[in-house]
From TrEMBL:
The keyword Cell cycle does not apply. It is an enzyme of class 3 (hydrolase). Keywords: Hydrolase. GO terms for molecular function: 6-phosphogluconolactonase activity. Gene3D superfamilies: 3.40.50.1360. This is 6-phosphogluconolactonase. Its EC number is 3.1.1.31. Signal peptide: none annotated. Residues 11-237 form the Glucosamine/galactosamine-6-phosphate isomerase domain. InterPro entries: 6-phosphogluconolactonase_DevB, 6PGL, Glc/Gal-6P_isomerase, NagB/RpiA_transferase-like. It comes from Paraglomus brasilianum. Belongs to the glucosamine/galactosamine-6-phosphate isomerase family. 6-phosphogluconolactonase subfamily. Hydrolysis of 6-phosphogluconolactone to 6-phosphogluconate. Pathway: Carbohydrate degradation; pentose phosphate pathway; D-ribulose 5-phosphate from D-glucose 6-phosphate (oxidative stage): step 2/3.
């Protein structure tokens, strides 16, 4: 059964603390049940907000973490645009996740979005095929952001998004004309997001309050973030009060 929880905090710092508790608890419970913790990370504002408190935690079995990226920009891994680079600087450089457990895109394929997506899908299959019997990978936790246009991962409103949705059996798909630079990206499609055990959105700032109302209160699926509804998992929204100011769901 799927459940949704919405949490809002006065400051981003308080949000970071609550998020660190949530991730640390899930990691502990999952490692004791399954002896590993499979995590999908996003880029944008998420890595900094996530790592601010989490990187100081000493109660996490980092060597049991297996990390993929929910989306990645097709750039060299040392580019300022790379989601991996951001996560490395904010989190990986401060904790002890084994390098071999962090799955990045193949840099030699960044000129060919389809090839890059296929290669990343092969990496996912190599890890998840042995773990799951489901048709899709079942992550223990996916950490997502949402842009002010309602995009999540590299699923954007409009044409590119419609193409992505049609790829419903793919584990990883690609975008060649993202409205937000850089244009070439790979991304998990909604089907993969919705098979996870746990999905957490982290959304902050006044600039996102209008679209948050459309996504959470109105379930308007023209905004891709509204498509995220885990089939059997738990969805938690970590918001700051600036982002949640318009939310009817929170006032009920
Ligand atoms: O381009 C992207 O944007 C989204 C949202 O970023 P944010 O800075 O508004 O939090 C991010 O979740 C995604 O991973 C990234 O590629």
């Amino acid at each position: 059964m799927s459940t949704t929880e919405i949490c809002s905090y006065p400051t981003v710092q308080e949000l970071s603390k609550a998020l660190a508790d949530y991730v640390a608890n899930l990691s502990r419970e999952t490692v004791s049940a399954r002896n590993r913790f499979t995590v999908g990370l996003s880029g944008g504002s998420l890595p900094r907000i996530l790592a601010a408190e989490l990187k100081h935690r000493t109660d996490i079995d980092w060597d049991k973490w297996i990390v993929f990226f929910c989306d990645e920009r097709l750039t060299p891994l040392d580019s300022e645009d790379s989601n991996y680079k951001l996560a490395k600087e904010e989190l990986f450089d401060h904790v002890s996740i084994p390098e071999s457990n962090i799955y990045t895109i193949d840099e030699s394929l960044i000129a060919d979005a389809e090839e890059a997506a296929n290669d990343y899908q092969d990496k996912l299959i190599s890890v998840f095929a042995a773990m799951n019997t489901a048709k899709f990978p079942v992550f223990d936790l996916l950490l997502l952001g949402m842009g002010p246009d309602g995009h999540t991962c590299s699923l954007f409103p409009g044409d590119a998004y419609a193409e992505v949705l049609n790829e419903s059996l793919a584990w990883v798909t690609f975008v060649e004309n993202s409205p937000k630079p850089p244009p070439r990206r790979i991304t998990f499609p909604p089907t993969v997001l919705n098979h996870a055990h746990n999905v957490a959105f982290v959304v902050t700032g006044e600039g996102k309050k209008v679209v948050l109302n459309k996504v959470i209160d109105l379930h308007d699926t023209t905004y891709p973030a509204a498509m995220v509804k885990p089939i059997n998992g738990k969805l938690v929204w970590f918001l700051d009060d600036a982002a949640s100011a318009n939310l009817v769901a929170l006032k009920k």
